[in-house]
Amino acid sequence: MQVTKTSAFPLSRVCLALALVAGGLGGAPAWADEARLLMDGPATRITTADVNADAQRMPEDVRPVILSQPQQVQQIVSNLYVRRALADDAEKQGLGKTPEVQAVLQLARDKVLSDAWIEQVRERSRLPAQVAEAQARSLYNAKPERFEQAEQVQVRHILVAGDTPESKAKAEELLAQLKTGADFAELAKANSADKGSGAKGGDLGYFSRGRMVPEFDKVAFALDKPGALSDLVKTQFGYHILRLEGRKPAGTKPYLEVREQLLAEVQDKAAQDAITAEADKLRAAAKPHTDAIRSFSESVKKP
Question: What PROSITE patterns is this protein classified in (predicted)?
Answer without folding.
Answer: PPIC_PPIASE_1 (PS01096), PPIC_PPIASE_2 (PS50198)
